[in-house]
Specification:
With about 450 residues, the protein is α/β, with parallel strands linked by helices. It contains 10 helices and 9 strands. The relative contact order is 0.15.
């Protein structure tokens, strides 16, 4: 409904402009701030508290026995998941949706039961001792692929971060989600040989191998950025008092290590897997929503592995707009434009900060025309201000203040014009107004 601008007594044209600016100021606020109270994905459509079924890295019973394939979900929702209001990918979609970029998803395979990846999914050859990459029993690989590249649909709040990117499904686990260093090495090599520009390794192992280290180096030499979790996802009751240790392939310096954040940007609560190695970036990863291997509803998941999908999606957006970047330049750009509250970087807990897709695509970096920052050093500050991911609702007053300051500038110009106009006519600067009832 359109609201008419009414002038209070004594308010001239400048006051009318003020009212109009104030009424329209809401459209200038970040979309995330305007929807900061959007419920999280754990609340499905229907009765309050009707939760989505969960996806985990491993499909095992507490005793270690296989739990069978992931059951279908009948839970639907039209809510916008919190990571989308937090990262605001819609702001950069006019520039890039990941067109022409292939993201490899290494994990339990991808089954596009939802159809949200239709026409944009390829499958690597089946690896020995791994499952069929086109049949996802666990559901974890499909979930990650959806976070990265699920298409947008009218009436649905959920979409992948880079909805036009291609997915290369590489199976590196068995039907329970278990893997090994050799399987990861074969999967990374296969993805690099197939031309993937981004390789999302959704699973980790506690030990590395010469073959795995060589595969990571090969991928980098072929221009592929490898992204992996900074810690394993935690199965309920499995963490205990275990000492945090580095995980692989994340421990290799060529890999971008990602830690998960909860709704609103909070670090994981007690009970989450402790990080035993470095952290390069953080991204949404707890209580996130995505698709599963069967047609129907959505699922939810929590852990560092899910955060890697948002970094991989952001990388695809960058490459869709800046396809000439090398893997080193891409990693540098993601780190240099990350949102951080301040302090030295990299921080042991959050690395260079939270991935910011809008800034990663749009910022101009001084060093990008020369040599990217060497591995292990802090990246250069962007040469243009970057917009952080949407904060919780408390950030809205600051943003409204910026809008108000802009409105005051407009008012000052209008008031000046209103004051000068009559004086100008009195001095013959402009034709006088016709007398009431006079001719034209």
């Amino acid at each position: 409904m359109n609201a008419a601008v009414r002038r209070p007594p004594g308010v001239g044209s400048a006051g009318a402009v003020l009212a109009g600016v104030v009424l329209s100021a809401g459209v200038l606020l970040p979309a995330g701030a305007a929807r900061a109270d959007t419920p999280g994905p754990s609340a499905a459509a229907g009765a309050p508290g009707d939760a989505l079924p969960g996806v985990t890295q491993l499909r095992r019973q507490p005793a270690g026995k296989p739990a069978g394939c992931l059951p279908a979900s009948a839970k639907g929702t039209q809510l916008t998941p919190w990571p989308q209001t937090f990262l605001r990918p819609d702001r950069v979609w006019p520039l890039s949706q990941g067109d022409g970029v292939t993201v490899a998803v290494l994990g339990s395979g991808v089954s596009d039961g939802s159809g949200l990846l239709a026409g944009r999914i390829d499958f690597a050859a089946k690896l020995p001792d791994a499952g069929d990459p086109a049949r996802d029993c666990v559901g974890h690989g499909t979930f990650l692929a959806g976070l990265i590249a699920a298409d947008r649909r009218d009436g649905a709040g959920f979409a992948g971060l880079a909805p036009h990117a291609r997915i290369l499904a590489v199976g590196v686990t068995d039907d329970t989600g278990a893997t090994s260093p050799d399987l990861l090495a074969q999967g990374i090599t296969a993805a690099a040989e197939r031309g993937a520009r981004v390789i999302d390794v959704g699973v980790t192992v506690p030990t590395g191998s010469d073959a795995l280290a060589a595969a990571v180096r090969l991928a980098r030499s072929k221009g592929a950025l490898v992204v992996a979790p900074a810690a394993p996802d935690v199965m309920p009751g499995s963490q205990g008092d275990a000492k945090p240790e580095p995980v692989y392939p994340t421990a290799y310096p060529e890999v971008l290590a990602v830690r998960d954040l909860g709704p609103g940007g909070a670090l994981p609560e007690d009970g989450a897997a402790a990080v035993g190695g470095r952290v390069d970036l953080t991204a949404p990863g707890d209580a996130v929503m995505s698709t599963g291997p069967t047609a129907g509803g959505y699922y939810t998941g929590s852990g560092p592995s899910y955060a890697t999908a948002f970094v991989a999606g952001a990388a695809a957006l960058v490459l869709g707009y800046r396809p000439g970047l090398s893997a080193d330049q891409l990693a540098h750009r993601l780190e240099a434009t990350a949102y951080r509250a301040g302090g030295a970087v990299p921080d042991p807990q959050v690395g260079h900060g939270t991935v910011d897709p809008v800034a990663a695509v749009t910022s101009l970096l001084a060093q990008e025309q020369s040599t990217p920052s060497p591995a292990g050093t802090a990246p250069a500050t962007p040469t243009v201000p970057v917009m952080p991911p949407a904060r919780p609702a408390s950030a809205a007053p600051r943003q409204a203040a910026v809008v108000a300051l802009g409105a005051l500038g407009v008012i000052a110009l209008v008031a000046l014009a209103a004051a000068i106009g009559p004086r100008g006519r009195a001095r013959g600067w402009q034709p006088p107004k016709p007398e009431p009832g006079g001719g034209a």
